[in-house]
Amino acid sequence: MKLQKTLFAGIAAVLSTGALIGSNVASAQKDWPTKAIQMVVPFAAGGPTDTIARLIAVPMGQALGQTVIVENVPGAGGTIASTKVARAAPDGYTIYIHHMGMATANALYDKLPYDPMTSFEYIGQVADVPMVLLGKKDLPANNFKELEAYIKANGSKVTMANAGPGAVSQLCGLLFQSRMGVRLTNIPYKGTGPALTDLLGGQVDLLCDQTTQTIPYIKDGRVKAFGTTTMKRLPAIPNVPTLNEQGLKGFEVKVWHGVYAPKGVPQPILDKINAALKKALNTPDVKKRLEDANIDIVPMEKVSAKGLKNHLESEINVWGPVIRKANIPD
Ligand code: MLT
Q1: Residue 186 has pLDDT above 50, yes or no
Q2: Distance (Å) from CA 163 to ligand 1 centroid
């Protein structure tokens, strides 16, 4: 009898501890966030991904009542940052913004230390960014035809910057070279922020970059624009023809972005991050800044876990064969 009583008391104690832990977890999720949140960016500061991250970090922080701090973790075309985030604590204090490199890395790297389809929680898609094939101001070619002739005459003496294997600048640059049947000298940087600085300084000849930063430089002639990677011309630079209309039929690269968290973040926290992201994308300042760079904010139904996960999966299926066919080296 005495033993039975002790046993019951023990069970009651365990149950009440369990209930206490359960209620602590629930209240931690309810109170979240109680400290600053880190938004990891897989490329160097000053580049397109970093710019979008900093643009949304402020209104997201305001919506959440805590600062969202941007941390740049560049290298290996974004895969170093993806690995870091996949291994981070699933407490909602680490979130991640990455572009379509999340889908292309699968085909570019033999073995990744994470799986884009299972190692993350999906918060939502953000925006689609067009790209432009740019040249330094002093490049002798003034239009696409002249660029073709210049490349034919100079071959591997022509240099092309990119942000490493897995970066969209590399993908765009190598697809361009594959379509032109040439191999230029490709120079990797930690992001297209520093690559653009070198293009402006004349240290490198070509760069395929997103419009996030480049429109003002194209408009005032500090870089040459040889063609957009879109099917239609861009309203901000209507005089720049598409690569498609200049002979590279079907040449289309639009850079989509998504926000992620490590696998295992509790749903109530994911919901709060998602609501903050939606709010940020509807802020007039953010909308204006993105519109000026001809960046499309995705429809709000895509700013969702389902929207991002489905898109990522379909993009892995689209880019895998394209990358293998173009024989893009890692
Ligand atoms: C960056 O933010 O530097 C770019 O998105 C890099 C790239 O993918 O080209």
Answers
A1: yes
A2: 6
Q: What is the pLDDT of residues 258-282, one digit of tens each?
A: 999 999 999 999 999 999 999 999 9
The topology (CATH level 3) of 36-129+255-326 is D-Maltodextrin-Binding Protein; domain 2 (3.40.190)
Ligand 1: residue whose CA is nearest its atom 8 = 167
Whole-angstrom distance, CA of residue 215 vs CA of residue 126: 20
Cα(208) to ligand 1 centroid in Å equals 10
Instruction: Give which of 246, 214, 170, 254 is closest to 46, Cα–Cα.
Output: 214
- The fold of the 130-228 domain, in CATH, is D-Maltodextrin-Binding Protein; domain 2 (3.40.190)
205: Cβ below 6 Å to ligand 1?
no
Q: Domain extents for the chain?
A: 36-129+255-326, 130-228
pLDDT band at 2 (very low <50, low <70, confident <90, very high): very low
Task: Please give the number of the atom of ligand 1 that sits closest to the Cα of 44.
Answer: 3
Pocket flag, ligand 1, residue 163 (CB < 6 Å): yes
Q: Which among 39, 40, 43, 229 is the best mutation to test ligand 1's pocket, defined by most ligand atoms within 8 Å of the CB?
A: 43
Bridging pattern class, strands 68-72 and 37-41:
parallel
Adjacent-strand bridge partners of 254: 130
Q: How far apart are CA 196 and CA 189, in angstroms?
A: 10
Residue 7: the pLDDT is 45
- CA 18 vs. chain centroid, Å, equals 41
Per-residue pLDDT reduced to its tens digit, 121-148 = 999 999 999 999 999 999 999 999 999 9
Amino acid identity at 74 = P
Q: Is 50 in the pocket of ligand 1 (CB under 6 A)?
A: yes
Pocket test for ligand 1, best of 49, 171, 214 (most atoms within 8 A of CB): 49
